[in-house]
Amino acid sequence: MAINTFDAIVIGSGMTGGWAAKELTEKGLKTLVLERGREVKHLEDYPTTNMAPWEFKYRKYDDPKTRKEYPIQSKKYNFSEASKHFFVKDIDHPYSNPEDKPYLWFRGYQTGGKSLLWGRGSYRWSDVDFGANKRDGVGVDWPIRYKDIAPWYDYVEKFIGVSGSKEGIYDFPDGQFLQPLEMNCTEKEIKKRIESHYPDRKMIPNRVAHLTKVEPGQFKGRSQCQNRNLCHRGCPFGAYFSSNSSTLPAAHDTGNMTLRPHSIVESIFYDKDTNKVSGVRVIDAVTKEEMEFKAKVIFLCASTLPSTALLMRSTSDRFPDGLGNSSGVLGHYLMDHHKNVSGSGHFEGFEDKTYRGFRPSGVTIPRFRNIHKQETSYLRGFGIWGGASRGGLNFNQAGIGKELKEKIVQQGPWRFGLSAYGECLPYHDNKVELDYNNMDQWGLPTLRITAEFKENEFEMRKDMKAQIQELLEVAGLKDIRVSDATPIHGDAVHEMGTARMGRDPKTSMLNGYNQSHDIPNLFVTDGSAMPSCGHKSPSLTYMALTARACDYAVRKLKSGEI
Amino acid sequence: MDRRQALKNTSRIIGAGVFAPAISVFFQGCNDSDIPQDGLPVALSLSQFTTLTILSDIIIPGTKSASASDAKVPEFIDLLVAEIFDSELSNQVQKGLKEIENYIPDSGHHPFSNLSAEEQVLFIQKLDNAAYGKGEVGKFKNDLLENYKSIKGLVLMAYFTSEKGVTENLDYAPVPGEYKACIEAPEEPLITIGNHM
Q1: Residues B106-110: what's their mean pLDDT?
Q2: What is the C-alpha to C-alpha distance for residues A20 and A7, in angstroms, rounded to an integer?
Q3: Is A459 helix (H, G, I), strand (E, B) or coil?
Q4: B108 falls in which pLDDT band (50, 70, 90)?
Q5: How confident is the model at residue B170 (pLDDT cuts 50, 70, 90)?
Q6: Per-residue pLDDT tens for A162-217?
Q7: Is residue A366 scored above 50 in pLDDT?
Q8: pLDDT class for B112, splitting at 50, 70, 90?
Q9: What is the CATH architecture of A1-161+244-334+427-450+493-562?
């Protein structure tokens, strides 16, 4: 085998690329993993992981230079001087949007991608999600149902480790859970109040990819969560799932993986004689040198917008509008969850109760709207997340001197808060395009992203706000405040849908195995494949779809069908 | 006059104690922009820095744990004013410090830095009471009350993000290990703090 020829090429090394790398290499394929950013090695490349606030020059403040270099990324809740090295420098990676349609594009260009930065929420989607488009006729029907993906959820959960409680909720299917991150005393009391008031609602521990227990099946070398809640600096315990701590080292251990960082894939080659993709052209991000690699099968896992852009750049006589885009849907139907509806209040009592440790999680009230039938004026639904905690340092209180010094260090009263994430419908005019008038430093077109939330989402938001208000009242809280800020596309970092799966090649890019309808050895398994966006964090579903697609691809390779 | 040069000169002349309250009044008219080399304030004038030091130690005196100035609170706020804060916030800090410095209390005829230590504490206590609605507002202008609250907030933030402030006062737990979800709290439960920013 020539040095630049592999069995498989995986483009991207984040949440889905890591899984494709692991699955394909474990199945014996010599696999090249191409990552556009630098290499971040588990443990070795987490420089801030143990740093105290006072070890940063400006402590919690961003360096003034940082704000200039990261004007978009620095808006994210988990961006700080302690984590900024896992975000892209906006000034190096420009994109654009219409002035009246702001778009927030959060990115991590490095091995592991955004798996170093994710919120770790790990939820099985249900047939409420997979059946949504069919039920109300918006978007194309998912080519799969829960039964198709359930075994792959099992498979992924056992490896990544998901903590959670079994609840028997139809729209929130149970999985292979490690013990949950327990609710605190106040949350347990609020759970009682909410569940005794509403027959159809539950408040349960959030489900997150944290090891509450080390078990066989998880990648070796990881250890139990130490409750530091400093995940976004990289975890020296490997306690939350990232590609860096788990899938990439597993792939490495097979001896079948070649990982090439600083590798921007310029385009994918299409061979019209065989109707297959044959390889990729890569630009070295540092040297700008160009090179080519060949493979029998290509997995595109570069995350929604970059994967879509790469397909758009890969044109040929057969596919003048983008690789595998005979349907014309490539780039359209961009979705994201809408958020920024939240509320909180004071919980009276339990002054004699507390907790210790920084639980990297909270509680959730799974979706309760439009589960079995359409009940509201808007389509689809939302979920609610939150938690209770005791008051921390309050820098705005009366008093001076010794008395203040003794008082300010005491835990304050309990507060409880909730916030909602809602589903967004797939709209044809929410889209991404290549902007050849504005090229990046590698000579590639930048992206122009046009997306907005519409009437259905705004109608849903009224209910999200009203339900949060009511839930906080039922919880018995005082001094309740509920707020609703304008949602911005991209802000939830759950962008998806621009190379969707579907049953009909005329209206979708991919079949139920994330395989291109047009080109049998091309698979796209990141968020771009999603025909609807549900309201639950999608990473677990991306991972399960990726593992399932790899299994299918290798079987088809072996049988000579691709 | 170039403020930094003036400070160095004075420091040499009087030998020590550039932050002694009595001399700070001389520097109020100086320009407020210099480069730090020598532990002198960068953005704040010497009188502002002096006032801030006194004020910080009244808010957080040395007890069994460090005082604000032991924890280098004034230096950190000076750094923030010099390099981080926008002009609005910087102005608020500097204006507030000037207002406190120049405020002539009913009981006396001298500005803040010339009061005795006891008088300074009494004055700040009165100002604090007024600012938080616990005492009469009297002659205090609203601006002063608001600026005082901002500066006090900064002092507390700077102290409780410093090593001494955190480790000598709070339950500092960078690696808590087990999460205990529901436990009995002691009479006065200390706030636990990790390495979050």
Answers
A1: 67
A2: 13
A3: helix
A4: low
A5: very high
A6: 999 999 999 999 999 999 999 999 999 999 999 999 999 999 999 999 999 999 99
A7: yes
A8: confident
A9: 3-Layer(bba) Sandwich (3.50)
DSSP type of residue B144: H
Taking phi over 0 as left and psi of -120 to 50 as alpha, with beta for the rest, A247 belongs to alpha
- Residues of B with Cβ-Cβ distance to A204 under 8 angstroms: none
- CA distances in angstroms from B161 to A52, A287, A557, B147, listed in the order given: 9, 42, 58, 21
When pLDDT is averaged across residues A443-447 and rounded to a whole number, the result is 98
Question: What pLDDT is attached to residue A25?
Answer: 98
Q: Closest-CA residue in chain A for B79? A: A58
- Contact call for B196 and A188, based on CB within 8 A: no
pLDDT one-digit tens code per residue, A216-241: 999 989 999 999 999 999 999 999 99
Contact call for B194 and A351, based on CB within 8 A? no
* Dihedral sign, Cα of residue B78, residue B82, residue B84, residue B87: positive
Choose from A395, A403, A407 for mutation: most chain B CBs within 10 A. Answer: A395
Strands (E) across chain B are located at 171-172, 180-184, 192-193
For residue A363, the SS3 value is strand
**A349 Cβ neighbours under 8 A, 6+ residues apart:** A189, A414
In contact, A554 and A546? CB cutoff 8 Å: no
Q: What is the mean pLDDT of the segment spanning A487-502?
A: 98
Segment 43-72 of chain A within 8 Å of chain B by CB: 50-54, 56-61, 64
Neighbour tally for A279: CB within 10 Å: 21
Residue type, B182: C
Question: HSE on the CB side for A326, CA within 13 Å?
Answer: 11
d(CA B192, CA B170): 6
Q: Crossing angle, helix B117-131 and helix B142-159, to 10 degrees?
A: 110
The answer to whether the CB of A333 falls within 8 A of the CB of A426 is yes
Q: How far apart are CA B105 and CA A426, in angstroms?
A: 66
Q: Where are chain A's structural domains? A: 1-161+244-334+427-450+493-562, 178-240+338-422+453-488
Say if residues A520 and A276 touch (Cβ distance below 8 Å): yes
Query: CA nearest B186 in A: which residue?
Result: A352
Q: Looking at CA atoms only, how far is residue B23 from chain A in angstroms?
A: 25
CB A105 within 8 A of CB A518: no
Residues 339-398 of A with CB under 8 A from B: 351-359, 390, 392-393, 395-398
User: What confidence score (pLDDT) does residue A1 get?
Assistant: 45
Determine the Cα–Cα distance for residues A24 and A33; give it in Å rounded to an integer. Answer: 11
User: Considering only CB atoms, which chain B residues are within 8 Å of A407?
Assistant: none
pLDDT at B20: 32
Instruction: Return d(Cα B130, Cα B143) in angstroms, integer.
Output: 12
Give the residue from A65, A213, A352, A356 with the most B CB atoms within 10 Å of its CB, the best one to mutate: A356
- 3-class SS of residue A551: helix
ipTM of the complex: 0.92
Question: Are B177 and A54 inside 8 Å of each other by CB?
Answer: no
Handedness of CA B177, B179, B183, B187 (dihedral sign): positive
Question: A84-124, pLDDT tens digit by residue?
Answer: 999 999 999 999 999 999 999 999 999 999 999 999 999 99
Helix, coil or strand: residue A413: coil
CB atoms within 10 A of CB A320: 8
Interchain CB distance below 8 Å, A409 and B191: yes
Q: Which of A536, A13, A539, A518 is nearest to A270 (CA)?
A: A518
Mean pLDDT value of segment B166-176: 97
Mind telling me how many Å the CA of A508 is from chain B's nearest CA? 44
**Quick one: pLDDT band at residue B22, thresholds 50, 70, 90?**
very low
Span A423-439, mean pLDDT?
98
Q: Residue A385 is encoded by which pair of tokens? A: 């997340």
